[in-house]
Design brief:
alpha+beta; five-stranded antiparallel sheet; flat; about 20% strand; DUF790 family protein; Bax1; about 575 residues; coiled coil
Amino acid sequence: MNYRFIRGLSQLLGRRTVIETDAAVDPSLARETVFEACRGMALSPAERKETLQKVAKELSISVKELEKALWADLEENQIVKSFVSLSPAELLKQYNISLTQTLLFRAVDLDIWIKGDFQKILWKILRSGLMYSLEDTDEERGKIEREINREKEEKKGDVKENFEELKAVHLHLDGPASLFRISERYGNSFAKIFPALLKSKGWRLKAGILHKGYQGKRILNFTLDDSEKFFKITSEAAVYPETLSPELQIKEEKEKYEARVEIGKEAGKEARIEEIDAEEATYDSTLEQMFGSLSLGSWKIKREPTILKAGKYAFVPDFSLQRDGMRVYLEIVGFWTPEYIENKIKKLKQVKEPVILLIDRKLKCSEKDFPSQEVIFFDKKIPANEVMQILRKYEEKKLSEDRSRLEKLEFPISGELVNLEKMAADKGVLPDALKEVVADRLAKAGELEEIEELGKLGESERTGEFEKARELEELRESGKAEEFGKVEDLEKYQNYVLLENYLIHRQLLERIDQDLERPGAGETYADAVKVFEGFGLDRSLYYPVLEQLGYKVIWAGLSEENAKVKKAKKV
């Protein structure tokens, strides 16, 4: 019998078991009370019986319950309250995972090759505080292409080729201490990454395992990939064949390892599988936590591992800053080794996306090292104002680009209330850019209205007015609208008023005005609010609508009930 194997399974099953002590009173209290009552040992059955009866009465339990409670906390007397069952195949799968994790506790470094969605793996690595390098691998890409060709031959049909899904990368993991000496202090982090790796596709790993023997320390290579059958066992899968015992099967699989492990000694260290999505976000440093808590106006701070292309390598910034379709990345460069900084500079020179760098002044580098990036040097505290200044540059650039694009677009308007913020989000532009273009078209619509009015006058004594009146007909006949835009669209704008982030139809404003003028309907600001709510207006429109309709609010304190609404002029 393989005792190590049995001991490993026992450890795993024990974690799924809830064991309780079945006793009427606390066993330690029962023993203490009994031994105090008999003052040592009972010298006869009669004395024992008398002592038990006395203690049972004192503890308000029966003699039988007392005798049961005396040793109920011993392991052989405890009972199993509940057990989360699993199939034999799933148990063996958990055993193999724990076996591998126990081995990784002794790893000094780790190399992972993976294709497809590796975002969660990167997220785990970033949280662990490990140092890493990441690059595309031609070797993996060749394997993927061969796999695609094999699938095509097997399925005799088209197989969808998605570069993003099939993209292969090589991750090398270690820690700062590894730069100076061989260290297995990062093995715990390596082991925690392994369950997340199992959820990926097309992976393989190689770990350097520190082996301590009579001949001293040696580094042994441990390799594994997703083709290993014992990691693909599911709860529905069949158990190992009866012709081959589980012990022999495990032994054969273990012979594939290039390093030996003793699971019994490390059973307490085995990591449990944890759901990545359920973990709370953690920060690698105080500076990152400080930046993550900042408020940058309309910009949202996201801490997620976005992969940016940096030549044949990849760069993963600390944060992404997002607003209205814009995305700017930010990297905090604290104290690291010269080699780390040099590698960072090489990568950043090849990144095309906008990246803001926050660099500790203690580091021996300058803005000249980062010619294509926005650089901010800091001492201890994050300079939020300087970050906002750079973000405003991107806002202005985006505003100009969006405005130029919107001026060439047709976006017909309809309805009584047009939400420009929603329209901007649908078109992927800044709300301010859309508002500027809409305001410009409203102005042109006003000019067009003047031309139409002049056209109704017929011949005018003033030649200039006569020429203006003819301009409308020329626009209609030519079908061009370089100056005023399409006449038909501009005529629709004549019916709207721009207030805050909304276009409001004049007919809606008239109906609101009529309701406000009804006796008792709009005497106070609170009354006006009820009218606005009836028309479904956003709260940001209350004051602008009142001003547009010629009302003013006279406040007498902070209460809306006491604020009077009066019409200042007739519109």
